[in-house]
Design goal:
This protein is mainly α and 231 residues long. The chain has seven helices and three strands, in the order H-E-H-E-E-H-H-H-H-H. It has a three-stranded antiparallel β-sheet, with helices on both faces. A hairpin with a 5-residue loop joins strand 2 and strand 3. Helix 5 packs antiparallel against helix 7.
Length: 231
């Protein structure tokens, strides 16, 4: 049995878009790649291969990408390039050429699935998100609104920077498979760009938290250091 390379998996993922070159969203959007990344807490136990497989299927179903019983759904792959992280990449063009629109409540569904996965697999619960902090802390209305805007920009699930970063990372993987040193150099530059975008997201997240931080200091309860995880 021959093992597929990353380049061949990427080509397999792109086939639906190539076979249906005019497929687009209702708004005319041709950006057909959906990218989700799942990250474990550093103190979480290592997951087995079957457990990672279960996590992948549960999240693509929560995102509406994989629908049990649907024979012409979206193609998707799960890539694990580093321990404790799983990248899910899906083509939003169905095999029949129809454009797949994620459910309107996809963020709520992913958040709910995150909690269930944590409980079922005995993982450390994800920390409170910036958006949750903005909604719960008693701060002036203007600061809260501005913080909410920054939190939305930094959001790993649906924020615009997360979308751009996912596309840059996907392009870097594709270019790295091209022959010649030029492809390697271009892929490296794209990886650096993706890293800078991630740093910008973290800076925006920190700024949003600062805007809504209470002015009166309180004694915090014992807690683990906050660790970023996007599910």
């Amino acid at each position: 049995m021959r093992t597929w390379t990353l380049a061949r998996w990427a080509d397999h993922l792109d086939e639906a878009l190539l076979e249906h070159p005019f497929a687009a969203s209702p708004d005319g959007d041709r950006r057909a790649i959906l990218h989700l990344d799942v990250r474990l807490h550093p103190d979480d136990r290592p997951l087995t291969g079957p457990e990672w497989g279960e996590v992948a299927h549960r999240f693509v179903r929560a995102a509406g990408v994989e629908i049990p019983g649907k024979g012409h759904g979206c193609r998707w792959i799960a890539v694990q390039a580093q321990p404790g992280r799983l990248d899910l990449i899906a083509n939003l063009v169905n095999l029949d050429g129809a454009w797949h629109a994620p459910p309107a409540d996809v963020l709520r569904r992913l958040t709910g699935e995150t909690r269930r996965v944590e409980e079922d697999l005995g993982l450390i619960p994800v920390r409170t998100t910036s958006t949750d902090r903005v909604a719960s802390l008693p701060v002036p209305a203007v600061s809260s609104q501005l913080a909410s805007v920054l939190a939305q920009l930094a959001d790993e699930q649906a924020g615009p920077l997360a979308t751009v970063r996912g596309l840059v990372e996907h392009t870097a993987h594709r270019i790295a498979c091209l022959p010649g040193a030029a492809g390697v150099d271009a892929a490296h530059r794209l990886e650096l760009i993706a890293h800078r975008l991630h740093s910008i997201q973290q800076d925006l997240d920190t700024t949003a938290a600062d805007l809504v931080r209470p002015r009166v200091a309180t004694t915090p309860s014992a807690a683990r250091p906050p660790v970023h995880r996007a599910l």
